[in-house]
Amino acid sequence: MSEALLRIEGVSKKYGPNTVLKDVSFEIGKGEVVGLLGDNGAGKSTLVKIMSGVVDSTVGDFFWDGQKIEKMNRNVTEKLGVETIFQDSALVPQMTITRNIFMGREVTNRFGFMKMKEMDAVAAEVLDSVVTIEGIKSPKQLVSSLSGGQAQAVAIARAVHFKRSLLILDEPTSALAVRATEALLGYLTQLKGEGVSSVLVTHNLHHAFQVCDRHIVMNHGKKILDARREDTSVEELTAAVVEGAVGLARFREGSF
Amino acid sequence: MSDKTPGRRGPILEVPLPTEAISLKRKPSGEPDSLFGRMNYNLQFIRGRGALEISIVLIVLLAGYVTASLISPTGFAFLNPNNLSGVISQSVPVLAILGLAAGILMIAGEFDLSLGANITLSAIVFIKTSEAAGLWLGIAAGIATGVAVALVNGIIVVYTKIPSFIATLGMSFFWMGAGIFINGTSPAALTTSREGTMEYLFAHNFGSFRSQLVWLLIIGVLAWFFMHRHKLGNHIFAVGGNPAAAEAISIKTKRVKLMSFAIFGGLVGFAAILIAVRTSSIQPGGTATEDFTLFAIAAAVVGGTSLTGGRGSVIGIIVGAALIELIRNGLLLAKAPGFYITLFVGVTIVIAAIFNKLMEGKAR
Q1: What is the separation of C-alpha A36 from the centre of its chain, rounded to a whole number of angstroms?
Q2: Whose CA is closest to B289, among B103, B98, B15, B155?
Q3: I need a labelling partner for B283 at 20 to 30 A (CA). Which of A136, A176, A198, B262 fits?
Q4: Which of B175, B201, B220, B214 is nearest to B319 (CA)?
Q5: Residue B306 in contact with partner chain A when CB distance is under 8 A
Q6: How far A139 CA lies from chain B's nearest CA (Å)?
């Protein structure tokens, strides 16, 4: 096995007197889909913020492709190709698809003016080749006119187009209809083939179990389970998520 | 784990997915070929984005005014050069520039209610510097004051996260007081320095239009290219529309908001110069400029700018300002008593806001 894409060692995070994360370590392999599971308040979103560089960890080491990273901040994660897709807020609804795809990475001349024609053409191609979404008539459409599933697809297409190497999807399925969810999970399976790693943060175990190669369960700020798909089961994950370490132990006793 | 290396282009996500939203292939471009078809196609993307509907209202109103004026040149003297040059081309540009200032800030998701106080302070600084050190330094000082005032407001809003409504409302009293502090309570007046270049630049009568209209054209074109074609303008829309999404994609939202405040201040400072040269004197702490605060926001709203940020257009805002001033002018020409003028302007603004709200849902 080659070096992991991202390896996290002994990460803790304190907000004042509250410890939100306690000594969390795990790795995300290249092209791996990792499910980050846990109940509300388990520390998932803090972990996501740390991985995407929005929030500093109190202690902990980070290794990208074996190289130690001194400090995870937005500039570093942007360069490394980490992209976070938050459930409802990945795109700007009042802007066109083209402008959303190129947001912050506009194609401009040297005075900073955007090349609209070029951007529209690339956007149309991205919509065609990366994700094929019916119902999108033109990249000039406003994102507010898209359904939740279409918008997620556009956000994923954007990340793929800009060759992001690690996608973090924060509760991507919570606002989606059943069929759009199926489609989204399908994208993740395909991303894997491209060597794009992804982290799927969810509390829907069934969605996670469907696509993830590995599952990490968080409980009260600690990692209590880290298992490859073939070594675990939906039942074990459920026990870990719902009842924490105690439930996990009880489940294992029962199953032995 | 996959051994494949990333980077291959082409379709990578074309699993035949079980949803109505996903199909195998889409026409590369849905654009029709015929001229009419293309117009119709483009129209559907302009609808509900602010400028189109309000422009139609303006054109209808203008057609009405012109007709009335042609029928009765004395009863409704709209086309009279005195009216066009003396009223329309002095009042519309000032309100439009202030509307652009307020509108750009609103697109970024913020307000600045100290606009009126900023005008007074910038105008006083402009007048005093021009009188003492000449026109060019005066212009620079006036605009710099506008930018500085807005930036102080912006820093307070951005770093304390106090809603801009409250922060700038409070600051507006402070800036009003600052005007009195540097000038005393007597009006600041332009005397000899107004003659010549200054008058020619900012208030000259060219027959049927004045200098102010030329400035509006220049600023309007620059603002359009900046907001709708420059990447920084794109960032302003992004930050106002969805700050979290902008942040996630590494746009520095605080910096973009501060930049919007600075642009706001620059435009307000410039409008203050236009107002100062037109009126020749400014009363510190006076209420004459305070109306502009809400009228500027009204022009932006009438022009289709969203009150919650992320939506608006330069053309819409200019048209909105023109509409407000035309209604005011029409009522004056029709000899409506002063009381009714504010009444009708108020009603127009509310109707426009409702209209906008309805259109927002229709936007594609």
Answers
A1: 9
A2: B98
A3: B262
A4: B220
A5: yes
A6: 9
Q: Residue A1: inside a domain, yes or no?
A: no
Whether A161 maps to a domain, the answer reads yes
Q: How much is the pLDDT for B356?
A: 72
What sign has the CA pseudo-torsion B196, B202, B203, B204?
positive
CB contact under 8 A, A193 and B12: yes
Instruction: Report the SS3 class of residue B283.
Output: coil
Residue A73 in any domain: the answer is: yes
Chain A nearest-CA distance from B265, in A, is: 22
- Whether residue A132 and residue B45 make contact (CB cut-off 8 A), yes or no, is no
Q: pLDDT tens, A198-211? A: 899 988 888 888 88
Kindly list the residues from chain B whose CB atom is less than 8 angstroms away from the CB atom of residue A75: 250
Q: Report the pLDDT averaged over residues A143-158.
A: 82
CB contact at 8 A, B77 and B69: yes
- What is the enclosing helix (H) or strand (E) of A183? helix A178-193
Find all residues with CB under 8 Å of A64, minimum gap 6, and list them: A5, A6, A7, A80
The partner residue sitting opposite B5, judged by closest CB among A134, A183, A195, is A195
* Residue A159 vs residues A113, A198, A238: alpha-carbon distances, Å: 23, 11, 31
Query: Does the pLDDT value for residue A55 go beyond 60?
Result: yes
Q: Give the domain range for residue A109.
A: 6-255
Which token pair is B282? Answer: 């400014």
User: In the structure encoding, which two tokens stand for residue B265, read together?
Assistant: 């201040």
Does the B51-362 domain belong in CATH 1.10.3470? yes
Number of domains in chain A: 1
Which residue, among B4, B9, B20, B22, would best test binding to A if mutated, counting the most A CBs under 10 Å from its CB?
B22
Cβ contacts (< 8 Å) between B25 and chain A: which residues? 128, 132
Q: For tokens 């799927």, name the residue.
A: A200
Query: In chain A, which residues have their Cβ closer than 8 Å to the Cβ of B19?
Result: 149, 179-180, 182-183
Enclosing H/E stretch for B24:
none
Nearest to A200 by CA among A49, A89, A84, A46: A84
Mean pLDDT by 10 residues, chain B (364 residues): 42 40 40 64 57 83 92 89 86 96 96 95 95 93 97 96 93 93 88 85 88 95 95 95 86 95 98 94 82 91 88 92 90 84 81 75 56
Rounded to the nearest 10 degrees, how much is the dihedral formed by the CA atoms of B198, B200, B201, B207? 150
Task: Show the CA angle centred on residue A11, arms to residues A8 and A13, nearest 5°.
Answer: 145
Considering only CB atoms, A93 lies closest to which of B225, B241, B246, namely: B241
Taking one residue from A and the other from B, the number of pairs with CB-CB distance under 8 angstroms is 190
